Amino acid sequence: MELLAYPFFRNALLGVVLISVASALIGTYIVTRRMVFISGGLTHACFGGLGLGYFMGWPPMATAAVFAVGSALGVEWLSRRRVREDSAIAVVWALGMALGILFVFMSSGYVPELNAFLFGNVLTITSADLWLFASFTGLLALFYICFYRVVVSVSFDENFARVLRLPVRTVNIIMTVFVAVAIVLTIRMIGIMLLMSLLSLPQMTAETFTRRYMPMLMWSAVISLTGGVTGLVVSYYISVPASAAVVLVLVAIYGIGLIVARCLRLRHRSVVRRLQE
User: Fold this and answer.
1) What is the maximal distance between C-alpha atoms in the chain?
2) pLDDT mean over 87-99
3) Are 45 and 98 in contact (CB under 8 A)?
4) Where are the beta strands (DSSP E) in the chain?
């Protein structure tokens, strides 16, 4: 409880709660669609926007947002032209990094925010960040409430959703844009490393126990929140970067989940074998 006396820790804790909810909503979608690397592709595409912003003297986060949304729409456009989604993501990833390196090299002076972009610091979350991300999370949750069945159908079987005449293309575009905006809003707060972990590890852990969308989503939020809070506390007491601590805790939870799931499967097989005998 003594940690709650510090305003920066309270902001970090509230930020972890909001990010856990948003990452569960977005991460479950991209994991079920086997598009985990889209988070990496869009974060590296943002690098091109940041470099352009510093080179031109424009607000870096605004240009990063434009690059992220444009890259997300580019991935969707390429995938509709018989280009595999992983190949489209690779193109966006490489182009964004190349442009970012080029613009940063041509910029005058040192660019100090690049380290924050790569690694982030959850302890630097401000009240303005919380209000902005809370608004985004509320909008994302509202979209899920209105189009939950369509999102689930598109996530598990896109072709079957088209047969049912569901708005597959519209949902794909909107969800991809949500992914891009979430990346831009969180990249400075938690960095690329932690963001990619929150969009994949909790969902992969939940997937070892359930294949249903809603339970996977709920468990992802719980695991993200548990890993985030535990990582914050651990980083405070042993004086290590909070983002790294959170990632290590999430990896540990994933490893424990694999072991538990393996034990449950062996026990189930043993029970079935006994009943057959």
Assistant:
1) 77
2) 85
3) no
4) none
User: Residue for token digits 């057959």?
Assistant: 276
- pTM equals 0.87
| Terminal C-alpha separation, the chain | 55
How far CA 113 is from CA of 40, 119, 208, 272, in Å, comes to 19, 10, 37, 57
Q: What are the CA-CA distances from residue 252 to residues 28, 45, 213, 246, 255 (Å)? A: 20, 29, 23, 10, 5
75: Cα within 13 Å, side-chain hemisphere: 33
Amino acid occupying residue 46: C
Distance, in Å, from the CA atom of 31 to the CA atom of 35, rounded to the nearest integer, reads 6
Q: Which of 32-41, 165-174, 198-207, 268-277 has the lowest mean pLDDT?
A: 268-277
Domain holding 116: CATH number? 1.10.3470.10
Domain that holds residue 117: 2-276
> b/e map of 223-238 (b: 16 or more CB within 10 Å)?
bbbbbbbbbbbbbbee
CA distance 232 to 255: 20
Q: Collapsing DSSP states into helix, strand and coil, what is residue 120?
A: coil
Each residue's pLDDT tens digit, 25-65: 999 998 888 887 787 788 778 888 888 888 888 888 788 88
Q: Which two tokens stand for residue 229?
A: 């809070």
Q: How many domains are there within the chain?
A: 1
